[in-house]
């Protein structure tokens, strides 16, 4: 994907193109903004653009360099993140995988330090991308700081974080910060309908449930999210509906999604009670039902439910037994009606 295909990040992309054009793209950058809005995609596209054999200010996506970067096989592009891992030297098979919550340790930064001082193997610029930079340990941050103080010319370091408040201030002060924002929900809904050919119900649900975060919406678009979310709402709120009780609880992430789906449902209930325009509802596909059910919930009930859901999210972070959490929640939500 090239810059021109990336939706909704026109401002940072424009700025980066200016830097490339004026040969000001040097040193270290910090991309901040919510999860799932395209920070890493822009970073990777930037790595392609500055190394592209064809175009001047964007990636062509067809030259050898662009293709290698896309496949994670370029010896001068290094990514430390939770999905791909760190490409060591020109042996892309040597990888250190990191989980989202895993710390970025000093060993990872030492590898970076070794690499950054070598000339590019075949590209024009060496690019180092550190995703979830808030996960740097204190030792790793200190080691990185030394590199950021005097980054070798011809190299580029891009830190990415959705939680910049957790970053060391000294690190932030050494980087040029670029802010990324989610799309407007109506805009994302339009993209999903026109560019990705989703039907109205799905496009609306994804745009509003994902709060304008295009990356998250695109991840969910090929799943059975609409049916799944309705199944979850039914299982937790209806007193009885055959077959609606069987929910997959194999991992904590699933449970987190369940809790967010339920929070969205009761948020809608609240919005409809205070007379917000219908198109602001996340569950617009169940508008009639929301209208029918709203009299069952007093505002106090809804406040209690919001508390219950946010406490459940907290308990989830604290490794509480998932089965117990869900069965308590189901019981509490059903008895609230
Ligand atoms: Zn290219």
Notable traits:
48% helix; 2 domains; binds zinc ion; 337 residues; elongated; 14 helices; alpha/beta; Rossmann fold; five-stranded parallel beta sheet
Could you characterize what this model shows?
This protein has 14 helices and five strands. It has helices spanning 10-21, 39-51, 64-70, 106-116, 138-149, 169-173, 185-194, 200-209, 214-220, 225-237, 252-273, 287-293, 299-317, 322-336, and strands spanning 27-32, 77-80, 126-130, 155-161, 176-179. The chain has two domains: 3-179, Rossmann fold; 224-336. The longest helix has 22 residues, at 252-273. It is an alpha/beta fold. Strand 2 (77-80), helix 4 (106-116) and strand 3 form a beta-alpha-beta unit. The protein has a five-stranded parallel beta sheet, sandwiched between helices. The radius of gyration is 23 Å and the shape is elongated. It binds zinc ion.
* Low-confidence regions: 83-99
Oligomer: single chain
**How many discrete structural domains?**
2
How confident is the prediction overall: mean pLDDT?
87
State the separation between the terminal residues, measured CA to CA. 48 Å
Ligand identities: zinc ion
Query: What composes the largest sheet?
Result: 5 strands, parallel
CATH class of the largest domain: Alpha Beta
Bin the strand percentage: 5-15%
Strand order in the sheet with the most strands: 2-3-4-1-5
Radius of gyration: 23 Å
Which architecture of the largest domain does the CATH hierarchy give at level 2?
3-Layer(aba) Sandwich
The number of helices is 14
């Amino acid at each position: 994907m090239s810059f021109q295909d990336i939706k909704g990040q026109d401002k940072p992309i424009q700025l980066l193109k200016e830097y490339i054009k004026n040969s000001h793209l040097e040193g270290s950058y910090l991309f901040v903004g919510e999860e799932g809005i395209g920070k890493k995609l822009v970073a990777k596209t930037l790595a392609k653009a500055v190394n592209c054999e064809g175009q001047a200010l964007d990636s062509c996506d067809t030259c050898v360099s662009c293709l290698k970067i896309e496949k994670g096989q370029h010896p001068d592009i290094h990514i430390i993140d939770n999905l791909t891992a760190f490409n060591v030297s020109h042996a892309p098979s040597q990888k250190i995988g990191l989980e989202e919550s895993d710390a970025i340790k000093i060993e990872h930064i030492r590898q970076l330090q070794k690499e950054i001082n070598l000339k590019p193997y075949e590209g024009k610029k060496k690019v180092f991308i550190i995703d979830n930079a808030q996960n740097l340990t204190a030792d790793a941050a200190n080691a990185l700081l030394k590199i950021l103080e005097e980054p070798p010319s011809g190299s580029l370091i891009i830190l990415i974080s959705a939680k910049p408040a957790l970053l060391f201030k000294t690190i932030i002060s050494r980087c040029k910060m670029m802010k990324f924002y989610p799309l407007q929900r109506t805009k994302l809904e339009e993209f999903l309908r026109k560019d990705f050919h989703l039907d109205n119900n799905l496009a609306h649900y994804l745009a509003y449930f994902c709060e304008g975060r295009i990356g998250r919406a695109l991840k969910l678009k090929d799943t059975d999210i609409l049916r799944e979310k309705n199944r979850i709402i039914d299982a937790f709120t209806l007193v009885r509906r055959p077959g609606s009780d069987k929910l997959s609880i194999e991992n904590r992430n699933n449970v987190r999604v369940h809790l967010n789906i339920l929070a969205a449902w009761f948020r809608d209930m609240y919005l409809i009670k205070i007379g917000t325009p219908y198109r602001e509802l996340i569950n617009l596909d169940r508008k009639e039902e929301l209208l029918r059910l709203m009299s069952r919930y007093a505002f106090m009930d809804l406040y209690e439910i919001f508390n219950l859901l946010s406490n459940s999210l907290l308990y989830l972070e604290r490794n509480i037994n998932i089965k117990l959490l869900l069965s308590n929640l189901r019981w509490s939500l059903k008895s609230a009606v």
